[in-house]
Design brief:
Helix 2 runs parallel beside helix 5. This protein starts with a helix and ends with a helix. The chain has a 4-stranded mixed beta sheet, covered by helices on one side. 47% of the residues lie in helices and 10% in strands. The chain contains 9 helices and 4 strands, in the order ααααααβααβββα. By secondary structure, it is α+β, with helices and mostly antiparallel strands. A hairpin with a 3-residue loop joins strand 3 and strand 4. The chain folds into 2 domains: 84 residues, Arc Repressor Mutant, subunit A (Orthogonal Bundle), CATH 1.10.10; 82 residues, Glutaredoxin (3-Layer(aba) Sandwich), CATH 3.40.30. The chain binds FE2/S2 (inorganic) cluster.
Length: 183
């Protein structure tokens, strides 16, 4: 991650980038984009990896980012917005720097996921998909995280999982994540 990207992550989820900022970033990573496109038969096929790259940089994918991604790949903006709308990891609206995803599918629901979600909302004082005022956290209900025998399961950002999470664990977890934030 470049220094510019690190600085940008400080504000991740807090504001919509200007069009020129998005263009500048795309210019900066142009060789990377071309290398990515060379792996596929069509440029369109590079869309999902490119969106992940943009998500890591800007935190979320507002229409301005989607339009520039479409332009760089030579595809229709509507194709990009359909992909963004389909995958829960792609968000059009601002999110917290740490996104807390609570599985709400059957095994987790039967073992109290709803109460866990309600407790996160109470502790953080926000509703689902609404960043905390300091931009640090947001909460989402997501589909199965593939760890059903350890329900209820919580994921934070891309790769950290917590199993058997109980409502009484929530305040302590939030305190810990404030002190030791997930990347
Ligand atoms: S149902 Fe929650 S991890 Fe599968």
């Amino acid at each position: 991650m470049s220094a510019g990207e690190r600085m940008s992550r400080e504000g991740k989820g807090m504001r919509t980038p200007a069009r020129e900022e998005v263009r500048e970033f795309l210019r900066e990573i142009r060789p990377e984009i071309e290398e990515l496109c060379s792996r596929y038969e069509t440029r369109r096929a590079a869309l999902i990896p490119l969106l992940h790259r943009l998500r890591r940089r800007f935190g979320f994918l507002p229409p301005v980012v989607q339009r520039e991604a479409a332009f760089v790949l030579g595809i229709a903006p509507g194709d990009v917005s359909r992909v963004v709308g389909f995958y829960s990891l792609f968000r059009e609206k601002p999110c917290g720097r740490q996104v807390i995803m609570v599985c709400g599918t059957l095994s987790c629901a039967l073992r109290g996921a709803n109460k866990v979600i309600e407790t996160f909302k109470e502790v953080l004082g926000v509703d689902l998909r609404e960043p905390t005022p300091d931009g640090e956290f947001s909460i989402e209900r997501v589909e199965c995280l593939g760890w059903c025998d350890k329900a209820p399961v919580v994921q934070v950002n891309d790769s950290d999982y917590y199993d058997n999470v109980k409502p009484e664990d929530v305040a302590g977890l939030v305190e810990r994540w404030r002190k030791e934030p997930h990347e």
